[in-house]
Design goal:
Keywords: DNA-binding, Phosphoprotein, Transcription, Transcription regulation. By secondary structure, the chain is an alpha/beta fold. The protein has two domains: 132 residues, Response regulator (Rossmann fold, 3-Layer(aba) Sandwich), CATH 3.40.50; 72 residues, Orthogonal Bundle (Arc Repressor Mutant, subunit A), CATH 1.10.10. Helices cover 50% and strands 10% of the residues. The chain is built from eleven helices and six strands. Strands 2-1-3-4-5-6 form a six-stranded parallel β-sheet, sandwiched between helices. 35% of the residues are buried.
């Protein structure tokens, strides 16, 4: 990330824009915060998905810039919760995840922008300006592949019987220690299988794992909306 921010050509700095930045890596977040304050007005900083939901509910910003993987709920989950609560604040995801499938998931879930952290600078400023104008911005190196990933049919990956057993128990809300006891496995083995399943599905939290597995038909009986409501209280 460069020390100096160059505003995109043809765009004057906007000083009356309220931005909310969510990132649990403090040094990275502070660097992005300084960058944004050169071009925009108020920049608030939070460090978790839960704090992000609370901050938007308390005072809705013009745009949210959020990491995806954070402590607690992910940035995508935080956005979903806010949509359920009636907040339509535009979200730009600023992340290290360069997967077009992850970008497609973020945009399909309601995101307005997707920018890679190593591109933060002029590109992030441009993304904010595009989103404020009502358009969607995806970092150019991902744009075409993200559209392709969005259009591609979602086929369920093949899991082993043991992985399927573990996934169903995770969906029931069991912890790794309980799953290990039920299946006669070590906790470490359960965690290893769970991590593999998350890698296969391209998710980074247990909530996202269960939600995506349900959408892909890998599990049944998972009621997404009641659980989302429970997490908001």
């Amino acid at each position: 990330m460069s020390e100096h921010t160059h505003v995109a050509p043809g765009h004057a700095p906007a000083r009356d824009i309220d931005l909310l930045l969510a990132d649990d890596h403090l040094l990275v977040a502070q660097g992005v915060e300084r960058l944004l304050m050169e071009c925009f007005g108020d920049v608030r900083l939070v460090q978790s998905g839960e704090a992000l939901v609370a901050a938007v509910a308390a005072s809705e910003p013009d745009v949210v810039i959020s990491d995806i993987t954070m402590e607690g709920i992910s940035g995508i989950d935080a956005m979903r919760q806010l949509r359920e609560l009636g907040h339509d604040t535009p979200f730009i995801f600023l992340t290290m995840h360069g997967s077009p499938e992850m970008a497609a998931e973020a945009i399909n879930a309601g995101g307005s922008g997707y920018v890679l952290k190593h591109s933060a600078g002029e590109e992030l400023v441009r993304a904010i300006q595009e989103v404020l104008a009502g358009r969607t911005y995806i970092t150019p190196t991902l744009a075409v592949r993200t559209i392709s990933a969005s259009a591609a049919p979602r086929t369920a990956p093949a899991l082993t019987d043991k992985q399927s057993d573990i996934l169903h128990r995770v969906a029931r809300g069991l912890r790794s220690k309980q799953i290990a006891w039920e299946l006669g496995l070590s906790v470490r083995t359960v965690e290893s299988h769970k991590y593999t399943i998350m890698q296969v599905l391209g998710v980074h939290s247990t909530v996202d794992l269960v939600r995506k597995a349900s959408r892909m038909g890998l599990i049944s009986g998972f009621e997404e909306e009641p659980e989302a409501e429970e997490r908001t209280h």
